[in-house]
Write a structure and sequence with these properties.
This protein is an alpha/beta fold. It has 5 helices and 17 strands.
Length: about 180
């Protein structure tokens, strides 16, 4: 069974984080990296703090082989991702980048330079667009009793049903968005 799980994970393109850690990847506690790509050949150049979440298909690279054909050498640089960081789906973090603590990187961003702590950055290349506190204040204003749902409204709940699903969809239609634990 264990071999089957590993084989299926490889077919889905999932990396074995434990193998990367054994090769030198430094990773903190309570990290949710999902189906991402962490530079397997240079993972020992990458440090990830505590409470980090990667959306699907995030890439973290510590090497850039664009110079190999022309100069005979590949550029390698350390990557540091702080604590309490969210990196949105399909984002790319390039070599030599430091992302501070308490940062949100928007989906599809390409992080080409350092992102300071307590900020929200988006785009290609990623640029800081606001302070994290301002972003969170605006989201708090969107939240109300009518558009907030508990964990029972997630697939983690074994009892999740079409009734839950339909209520979520209708509330989203009425309020523009919902918030789920």
């Amino acid at each position: 069974m264990k071999i089957l799980k590993k084989t299926l994970a490889r077919l889905r393109g999932e990396q074995d984080i434990n193998k990367l850690v054994s090769r030198g990847l430094k990773i903190g506690k309570n990290c949710h990296l999902g189906n991402c790509t962490i530079d397997p050949s240079h993972c020992f150049h990458i440090t990830i703090g505590d409470n980090v979440t990667f959306g699907p298909r995030v890439h973290v690279l510590a090497h850039d082989a664009s110079t190999k054909v022309f100069l005979g050498y590949t550029r390698v640089a350390n990557v540091t991702i702080g604590s309490n960081v969210f990196v949105g789906a399909h984002s790319i973090v390039l070599p030599g980048v430091t992302i501070g603590d308490n940062v949100i990187i928007g989906a599809g961003s390409i992080v080409t330079r350092d992102i300071p702590s307590n900020s929200v950055a988006v785009g290609a290349p990623a640029k800081v667009v606001k302070q994290l506190s301002d972003f969170l204040d605006s989201k708090r204003k969107e939240m109300s009793d009518s558009n907030m749902f508990g964990e029972e409204y997630t697939f983690r709940n074994a009892g999740f049903s079409s009734i839950h699903r339909d209520r979520l969809v209708k509330t989203c239609e009425a309020n523009g968005c919902i918030y789920v634990e």
